Amino acid sequence: MKQVFTRPESLKDVQTHFCPGCHHGSVHRLVAEAMDEFGIRDKTIGVASVGCSVFLYGYFDIDVIEAPHGRAPAVATGAKRARNDRIVFTYQGDGDLAAIGTSEIIHAANRGEDITVIFVNNTTYGMTGGQMAPTTMVGQKTSTSPYGRNQAKDGYPIRMAELLAQLEGVAFSARVAVNSPRNVMQAKKMIKTAFRYQVEGRGFSFIEALAACPTNWGMNPLAANERVGSEMIPYFPLGVYRNTANL
Amino acid sequence: MSEKLFVKGNEAVAMAAIEAGCRYYFGYPITPQSDIPEYLSRELPPLGGEFIQAESEIGAINMLLGASATGVRAMTSSSGPGISLKQEGISYMAGSELPGVIVDIMRAGPGLGGIDASQADYFQATRGGGHGGYRIIVLAPASVQEMYDLTMRAFDLSDIYRIPAMVLADSVIGQMKESLTAHPRPKATLPAKEWAVRGRESGEPQNIVKSLYLGDGEMEAFHWKMHARYQELAEKECRWEEIETTDAALVVTAFGSTARIARTAVAMAREAGMKVGLLRPITLFPFPRQAYETISGYCKRFLTIELSTGQMVEDVRLSVARDAEVAFYGRPPGAGSLPTPEELFEQIKKQY
Question: Which of A9, A153, B203, B281 has CA atoms 20 to 30 A from the CA of B346?
């Protein structure tokens, strides 16, 4: 019998610590498939961030540096400049990238650092227990917005894929989701494109992946998955926001 | 290469970094250290190196962390307000056992303070500065020549012990010009950086550079391991300079720029027939306790002089014999000038 589906070589055969219904596992897999596809596992350096994704090295069979909260793009900059024959990617959550790390992401993108950034947006701080994030939806209740996010007081959910697409240094910026088979296939294509751009030395590539956090949203996995489609995608539309191949 | 040059202290740091094999510098402008990034922005690219003017001091220290994690020699520099911002990254580097050289050309603080020379970052440098109870290697040059020599030494010590190393000077040493004999980097036996993150080519095992320890007892074990390393540093790497201490009835002690002025005051005292010596710590961490212990066995009077209201004096008091007396004379910045040799000579006479 022909085997048609296997574990990517770049992923370790271990159980994850992620909650049931969490989308990190799916995004991990797509990143690993992209690494396998380009045969770059042994020349890739991952930069883990603070939060649920800090254990990157536990799942990916690659060298990993752990960065301080929000600083992964700066850490990746140092690593890539020192080893420019390597593939360097960061893996960051929304609290990490869109709050404490806005300075680092904007300037790494603007310098056109030849790195790939995987940004997992689940509208909350997962690891610390579901506090309000810069991407929390208006009206969304969290442990620090118990009355719902109030745009008059807390501002609006920030759209990073569009924001970074404004910068000349960015080669590729796209938003994807993994809430349906169709979206997973599209996400796989986009993540591969992001890594291909780095393999080709074309500059900064950015993927925002919308993700479910059932535990902190207080939902079961199915309802959380549905929320990605019904609430998040309308505000955070999927698509390619910058692609230098089209310029 | 053993030519005699006439250069600024800051330039000597940059020249030494290049001679030490550092090809990666990440920084952000701040007075009085901007000569260092300016020099390296000009000199590193032709050598195949990289200069990045980061978006902030936080960006710069994390670029240093990333570069160092791949096993290369890398450096950053700043002054007080910028060093405060870098503390987050220094703590993570200490927690990740990463080498790297950080230069602090001290200016007046706290806050924005001023650009006068100050030695008030002593606590920040020698007590860890950031969170988590760590130490870094701290070297305190007192001349342009030492800016060169000790910067090179900082790279070696940092690599050998896998502890970040700081060159702690102030705007006097950084900005003044003196003669410098530039020389090749002294040979040193350095360990291979088998821990470095470079990708897994050639079937190498996975390397992880991290500071998170959640397993039972892991964090405690890390702290005891580093504690032992700090003790080894103290046993092997303390450096200091003694001038006419063997028959001294009073020993003046100071580091960096202040020690230069104190040296003249001590010479004035000797000329006046007073038995006064000078003890200048060159390593501030590890602090050369042994030197104080030995001298205080026969000399019971010490005078500590600093450009602050007193910080190193605490280490001096902890290091001398119980029956020794430690007086203090401080000149924090803002008085409009540095202490003169005559002023310090007056203090020596008071304490003699």
Answer: B281
